[in-house]
Amino acid sequence: MANPDVSNGRRRFLTATTAVVGAVGAGFAAVPFIKSWQPSARAQGAGAPVFVDISKLEFGQRLDVQWRGKPVWVIRRSAEQLEQLAGLDERLRDPDSKNIEQQPEYARNAYRSIKPEVLVLVATCTHLGCVPLFKPELVAQPFDPNWKGGFYCPCHSSRFDIAGRVFQGVPAPSNLEVPPYRFADDKHLVIGVNPEGAA
């Protein structure tokens, strides 16, 4: 004859064990399901701001970074390069950066930058998206005997000055894009974030 105390104890033990195993299994099944709701690390990185150290960037040099899957250049321009900008207006398609989609309002100036010596540009030609060559030298080039420094697209010969403004008579329809950015301090900038108070 079965002992009722033993049966009840065994039943409670089996019920509790089954509940615990079921809860653990449900937890393991729920983790990947919940994680699927969150953006991947790749997706988070694609839109995240990029912190750039410019402390070692010399005049005439360029840093290459990625932001939102786009190549971005940070360039330190010399005083001599900046002086050349004023004399190019007649050769440019949009010298005053009137196309407001090409730069934030705080970069809509003669230098297309917050600080004149530091230029930040998306490094893709506005014609078909090729990456232009950085040609900072103030010397005649095979593609322009009056070259004053800037960017040359080898795909279809579009040319841009050292502020990323497009020349007339080339396939590129507009200036190179200036992404949103701000200075964290004198030695660092953040690409993808506007300065405080700027739209």
Topology:
Elements: H1 4-35, H2 41-47, E1 50-53, E2 62-67, E3 70-76, H3 79-84, E4 118-122, E5 133-135, E6 150-152, E7 159-161, E8 181-185, E9 188-191
Antiparallel strand pairs: 1-9, 2-3, 3-4, 5-6, 6-7, 8-9
Tell me what the structure shows.
The chain has 199 residues and is of the alpha+beta class. The chain has 2 domains: 1-38; 47-191, Rieske [2Fe-2S] iron-sulphur domain (Rieske Iron-sulfur Protein), CATH 2.102.10.10. It has 3 helices and 9 strands; from the N terminus they run ααβββαββββββ. The protein has helices at residues 4-35, 41-47, 79-84, and strands spanning 50-53, 62-67, 70-76, 118-122, 133-135, 150-152, 159-161, 181-185, 188-191. The chain is elongated and about 105 Å long.
Task: Give the structure's gist in a few sentences.
With 199 residues, the chain is an alpha+beta fold.
CATH architecture descriptor name of the largest domain = 3-layer Sandwich
Number of helices: 3
Assembly level: single chain
How many independent structural domains? 2
Name the CATH superfamily assignment of the largest domain: Rieske [2Fe-2S] iron-sulphur domain
Largest sheet: 3 strands, antiparallel
Whole-number mean pLDDT? 87
Coarse morphology: elongated
Order of helices and strands: HHEEEHEEEEEE
Give the tags.
199 residues; 9 strands; Rieske Iron-sulfur Protein; 3-stranded antiparallel β-sheet
